[in-house]
Each structure stands twice: as C-alpha cells, then as structure tokens.
Amino acid sequence: MYITYRNTVPLVFTALTFNPVFAEAKSENSAVESRQEKTPLEVRQSEQTSKTTGDILKLEKITIEGAATANNKPVGTFNSPISNLEYDPRVDLQSRNMAEAQADVTIRGGIFENTGFRIGSATLIDPQTGHYFAEIPIAPEMLTKPRIFTGVDNALYGVNSSVGTVSYGWRPIQTAGSVSLGVGNNNFNLQRVHGAVKHALGDLPGWTVGVEGEYSRSESDGTIANGDHNFERASGRIQLASNDSQTDVFYGFQQKFFGWPNLYTPFNVNETEDIQTRLVMLNHKQRYGEEGMKNTFEVSAYYRENDDHYVFSRENPEAFQAFHETQVTSLAFSGTHNVSQEFGINYAAQLTADDITSTTLENNFTSRDYYKISLVPEYRTQLNSNESLTIRLGGAFDDTNRDDDRLSFVGDISWLTQTEINASRTLYLSYAEATQVAGYTAVGGSTTSGLFRSNNQLQREVSKNLEFGASFDRASFKVDTAVFYRWDNELTDWTYSFDATSARSANPVDIQTLGVEVIAIKRFDSADVVASYTYLDKSEDYRIDEVDASFYALNYPPHRATLGMVWFATDTVEVRIDNEWRKQETNALRNGSDSAFFSHVTLTYSPAQIEGLSLVLAVDNLWDERFEEIPGTPGRGDQYSATVTYFW
Length: 648
Fold this sequence. Notes:
This protein is an all-beta fold. It has helices spanning 54-58, 151-157, 440-443, and strands at residues 12-13, 44-45, 62-65, 92-96, 102-106, 115-119, 122-124, 147-149, 164-168, 176-184, 188-200, 208-220, 229-241, 245-261, 270-288, 295-311, 321-338, 343-358, 367-382, 387-400, 406-420, 423-436, 452-453, 461-473, 477-496, 504-523, 527-541, 549-550, 559-567, 573-583, 595-605, 613-620, 639-647.
C-alpha cells in the first residue's frame, strides 16, 4: 500500500497491518476493533489520487487516519471540533478562558486570522473577526479528525486563509449512542447525550439512511475568578449513503456565555462574551469512474449566523458594550478528476456572501462577496518498480467585490520510494502563494477612537511559502519533517502603544518566518507515543514607530515541543497523557514567565462486568501554570473532572 504525503499532515501510516497512533473510527466497512475507543478503526479510501501509474495506481489506496494528540476530550466542558488542538503538534492554539470558550488557532507562526476551518468542501467564514472562526456547532462524532493543510494544499483548498486550513470531513453514520454526566472542581458540571441510527434500504441494495443527534451542556465558576462559563449545543443530521456517495443535511445551534479578566483589553476589567451560532449545511460527496482510477467530487452549501454580545465590564455594563450579528451564505465544491493513469486535475471553488449588523462599525463596510477558484493539474510517473514522481503545477484566483483580485501560483514535486515491504520514504519541494482580506473589525470601525482602532487603508494580504520536507514510514513508526520559509506581506496585526487610549489598533506588517518541524510517532506493545519539536524565527517591519507590542503576529514560540502517550495498562485501564512545553517570544504586555509546561492526564476505567460503562478521571493544566497565552490576558488554572459515560 502507498500513502499520499504532501503538505498535509494527517499522521497516517502506509499499511493496514499497523494500527496508527491514537486511531479513531469512521469506517464504512471495517469492523476492526480499536484498542483505544472500542470502536471500528478508521479506514477510508483517500480523497487524493495515487502517486503512481500502472498496477500501483490500480491498487486501492487505503489511508488510516489517526489523531495527533493522546486525549480526545476536554476536561472543563463538552467535546468540540477544536478540543485538544492546544496539544496538537501541527497547530498552536491560544485560548481565552479555555479552548472551547475562545480558540485562536495559528499554524506555523501565523495569526488566528490566517487559519481557516473547512467542513466538507466549504471554508466557514466569520466576517467580523477570526476570533469566531472556531465557533462550529457540530458534534465531533459527526466529523473526521482534522487534517492540517499548508503550502500547496492550503492554496488549493483554503479560502481567505493565507497560512493554513483545519479541514474536517463528514463521517459515515454508525448505529451507536452514549450518555455522560460529569462533575469537577470550580463547581463544574456536564450533561451530554448522543445517539445515531443507520438502516439499510431494502429496496435499494447498498443504500443506507441514517439519523444522528446530540445535546450537550456544561457550566462552571471557572479556573480563576470571573472566569465562569455556561455552554450548550444541539446538533443533528440526516444522511443518505451508498458505496459511492454520501449526502448529509445538518443543523446545529450553540450558545456560549463566558467571562474572563482582560479578555481583549489590558485595562484590568472583567469582560464577558455571549455568543450564539447557528449553522445549516448540505453536503454531497460522490466517487465515480472506472475501478482502479476513481475520481471524487464534493459540493457543500451552508448558511451560518453568529451573534455576539460583548461587555467591557461586567460590574458596569453600560460603560461599553457591543452587539454584532453576522450572516454568511456559501456554495463550494472540490474534487479530483483523473484524465488518465498519469494525469489528473485537482480543483476547488467557493462563492461566499456575508453581511454584518454592528453597533460599533461605521456602516460603510458591512457586506462583501468573495470568489475563489483553484486549478492544480497533477502529473504522475513511475520511475521504476519502487519509485514514483508526482508534479503538481497550477494556480488560484481570489477576488471580492470590495478588494483587488489576486492570481497566485502553486506547485510542488514529490518523490516516493518504497524502501522495503511496509516501508517508504517521501521527499518533496513546494512553493505556494495564498492571499486573504481583513475582517470588518480591522477595516470597518473607527480609525480615531474606541477600544479597537480600525484601519481602512489595509490592503490584501499575500503569503508566499517555500518548503522542503521528508516523510519516513515503517510498520511501527513514522517521522515527518519540514523546513519552510514564508514571506507575509501586508499582514494585518493588532498592536499596542503605551501612549494610545485604545486597547489595540489594526496595523499592516511585513514578516518573514523561518520554521523547522519534526513529528515522530511510534507504537509499542502496550503504548502509543507521538512527539514533536517546532522552531520558529521571525523578522518584522511595521513601517511605523508607534508599536510597543504585538498581540498576535509576534506572539509565537521560537521553541515548542509536545509529547503524547496512550498507555494500555490493562484490559480495563487506559492512561492518556498530553504534554506541551513552549518558550514564547518576549512581549512587553505579558506578565510572568515567557515559558510554560502544560499537561493533560486522563485515566479511564471500563469495568468488564458492565459492558459499555466507563469512568474517566481527568486533569488539565496539571502543574497549574498561569502562563499568558495572549499577552496581558491571564492564563487558565487547573481543572479536575470525573465523568461517567455509558455507550451502546
């Protein structure tokens, strides 16, 4: 078997003889039992085409997906699509309160605005600010594990995300269910129920219809004073599936209230957010073509509404508060069409229209239409019986009705060698350009007053990424490495001046970033381990003198390491540990240390006498680090919880 490895880092292995680290289930056909979750092992046919020709192209290309972290659920609330990304070696998550409250997800030293979230073929866009990109009211059971797109894959599939994209697919529905009750310190409590049913259609052999739904809620007083939360989510979908197609109709609603001192401002006040998110989505995925040369096509359409109520001071709400209502409608499609065994075409497109009603914008920039189309032809050739070469070369066109358009070049070349049975080596070289425009908070507010100072002179941001990487795969371990250099021009950053009256101001900056990434995963007889190290170095030019500190662009770790492990202690006891160490770049707004060490530990006991029952004891931030992930915003404290779950 051969894997596809480009600029995507899905943490996958080449052969079905090996269970990947931290694997979870979404197989349509497999009934292999996973040690971790007692659910089917995730096995799927890859969305990407094979890298070889002839007999190798005709082989069914199997990919086994696995998570990049040991833990798959948070400690202080219910699970969400972005849970535990703070321990993921592929991304850097900077949270306020906790990840599920507000998650600023960055990739390779970018900022949160440079990261997109993609469901199916469509990138979810929030026109106000990237702080709300991760407001995704979908139960994680409905989605695949995230794939991280950078370089060519981000330029091809991402929309208005110049550095990277976190991409999810829709899982096939399986009949299953669970109910959970949890408690913890800080008056934490959780209730959750999830259920799914799939039926075969007797009159249509090979076709199934499924229904899935969940309801989740949690609340607590918070890990620090004035850090309380009250969350709830309800989501459901209907799915019609066959051997070659899957159609999902989805609706989700999420309401979140949370507080935190210095949430957005460094003025020592207790701020709050109240956010409501609605998402309606239709997704259809189709495989077609002759056996041995399958093609894929996926179309996604969604309507997303996000309403937020921000209060500057919970003790004095009338001092300043803001209301925003955003609506986004989008249609997107993507796929791969193989013209022959040697030649294929990768394509993607998305049309998006948004609108915002706000009490803080100046009402001169409250709607925008976005257009993106990408076309990247792919040529594959077999060098010999063990080596193949793949070349992708194409471009992407971005435009809006308010900004200048941009044509971007993308291309890469990868060399795959099968070194022995169940072992391979991949080397690649890529260059990719991507672009985006700034959100309304950055361009549509007041340029002379207010807590958040806008800048109506901001231009389209352009990112250029040059990268060399290698992947080494064997039956029991995998190592991925990459060295990249990125030029970000006209990047919109939020900065602070000690002489200013505003909390932050939007300013453009040119940044050059050098990065090195190493991710290694290994399976032992009774444990799975993933380890990583990332090095980043930046040079910046703001072109003005009135910048004393950067909240985002210069808030990065020059050194970051992660270590995750799942230990199968006995047939009934399992231990999961995630660790992260970071040395952050010095920042004038940060209080306390520039380095931190975080640990998330979970102990699961599943008594053999009661099938389906599990007791989970968990702690996050074991060492009670108070590191300020956002400069000037207090860090989270430790959280303990005990959760009882019954699966069926």
